[in-house]
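Late entry, written up from scratch paper. The run itself happened at the end of the previous shift, but nothing got recorded in the book at the time, so transcribing now.
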Amino acid sequence: MNATKSARGKAAPKPRRVPAKDAGRKGPTGVVGNGGRPGERTRSDGADVLARPLPETLGECVDLLYVTRQNRLDLEHQAQKFQSRETALREHIIEKFSKADIEGARGKVATCSVNHATVAQVTDWAAFMEYVGRERAFDLVQRRVNDTAYRSRLDEQVSVPGLEPFKVLKLSVQKRAK
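Output as recorded:
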């Protein structure tokens, strides 16, 4: 295994490894908080990854990108759990409101009330799109092109007026195989 070199060309010091089981905390685990290897768990919350200057070498940049993404994914996973709990609580409160025939309640730290809003639900796309075209009611639709449908037309060499291909540069990042 090659040693990571610092900006001066000397071998970088080995980071202190902390096994994931000894991290001693619940919630999202920090991944490589002190310059260690990607996938290594430390006691970091990820803040040190955000505070670090951008690395000089490409290898260090790739590793830091991977570590930063892993930290974000860990936090997103935790956020999804909170979102699920929030959804369950909302549904539970709405059910209780309905049974009690009320539209609001309060606790010690917050209040909650029911708000009504009208939104569109399309029942007949053909009729709707005909209306949009006939009445020029384009404000009823969002201005977005379906990229998959457009690429399909490009593959079939069909020209779509008003559109031109635009190449988007994407970076693919994966954990290295051992």
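The beta strands are 30-31, 41-42, 104-106, 111-113.
(Scratch paper discarded after transcription.)
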